[in-house]
Amino acid sequence: MSAATVSLLLPDEAATRRLGEDIAAILKAGDLVLLEGGLGAGKSTLARALIRAIADDDALEVPSPTFTLVQSYPLRLAIAHLDLYRLGDPSELLELGLDEALLSGAALVEWPERGGDFIQGDALAIRLDDEGHGRRAILTMPDAWAGRIARTLAIRAFLDRSAWPGATRRHLQGDASTRAYERVTLSEDAGGHGSSAVLMNAPARQPGPPLPGGGTYDEVAHRATDVVPFVAMDLAIRAAGFSAPALLATDIEDGLLLLEDLGSEGIIRHGEPDFERYALAAEVLAELHATRRPSALPLPDGGTYRVPPFDAAAFAIEVDLLPRWYAPLVGVTLAADAEAAFAAIWRSLFARFDKAEKSWLLRDYHSPNLIYLPHRQGTARIGILDHQDAMIGASAYDVASLGQDVRIDIAPGFESALKARYIARRQALGPFDAEAFAAAYAISGAQRATKVLGGFARLASFGKPQYLRHIPRVWGYLRRNFEHAVLSDLALWYESHVPYDEAAAPSGSP
Q1: 351 or 208, which is more confident?
Q2: Pairing state of beta strands 124-131 and 32-36?
Q3: Dihedral angle at the C-alpha atoms of 368, 373, 374, 375, nearest 10 degrees?
Q4: Domain made up of 266-504: CATH architecture
Q5: CATH 3.40.50.300 corresponds to the domain 3-161
Q6: pLDDT, tens digit (0-9, with 9 covering 90-100), for 415-469
Q7: Shortest CA distance to 81 belongs to which of 34, 126, 121?
Q8: CA 126 to mean position of chain CA atoms
């Protein structure tokens, strides 16, 4: 098995701790990290920094496991910290539960050479040796680690050259895509003021295999495969007077963005949707939709990004997730004529949808992507985080996304009041066709719910069953949309071919 080697000079203790944070940022279940070097070489310093980074707690007590041999930490990612210095015989390692720890978490092993052949697997080995006033770290790794190590070190270099040298890195969130986020913080200055920002780690990805009809899923559905759309939309949203995070530093080619930290106060309070915050988010949409928005957006390098249309192909490929993924999940085999009827109904609905008023369609305008900013004024109090997959399409779509939030229950009365707030604001800003909006809203909600049912089933099949807990809620929204006459044929199709049976809800649902 080939092995790659990286040599790093760590000039002081802070640099050793930063390396621990850099490793923590990429650690996942099943990872084994071997810490080698003599007494006082810095193994415990690095391990302590790594564990505290996973815990997001700089004050976490992390004692050396020299005498206990193993110390376990049930954190966001479970960590087992082993010190084999006092191991009497390599076979004693079997009693420490290393294999079990790697099934659900990661493990750090100091003095791994004392475990002999009982330590196996694709491990990252980090050897620390004194050099000058600091240390030299030699990282030796199999191919399975090489790409991740290169990426985390590239992020550290990006921070260093972006006027954030030595910044602390902490996991913020990942999502269903390849994007990941970190909160980075500079130490407090003499006045006690620290600085924080959000790092978006979104390496460009290949758009996937070609589809039988041509193009890939990402191409047909207009899903971003690099950060260019995010940058263009972010600048455009801010230029239009709305709150999106300022771009503090960018490496567009490498897929790294440093963004203004808008905080973490959302539009949900105490586990419940806050109506005034949701209503404010609806007014943001009303003001955004009241003015014609361009599809050609300027880029920092002088180029132009063109926002794609929500066209028939994108509309259709999203709802096609239901027969491809959700139907098999619930044990339904659709006959060819049933699938043909499903597609025909959606073609008819798209024709109606496509005639509706259009604007920037942000696509995922719901609670996880909206921040409440109490110190700003008016609609600027809502921060918009996620917009890289924006299209030009029916403005009602984002209102439906907000009013039928797939991650939290929105009661019918709450949703109706939210739509009323949007309509009132639109009517105050100029002529507005409320009847056409209602039809476009129902189509948007049904299309989105259909896509989400298929998409969450797909994610579950890829080892993420937690998404299935949202299925009953999404079905509730879908049936709510069926109350509009424009969806009568679709409602009948579902009833005939894929009815919802609460008792037989997919595993993982509440």
Answers
A1: 351
A2: parallel
A3: 170
A4: Alpha-Beta Complex (3.90)
A5: yes
A6: 999 999 999 999 999 999 999 999 999 999 999 999 999 999 999 999 889 999 9
A7: 34
A8: 30
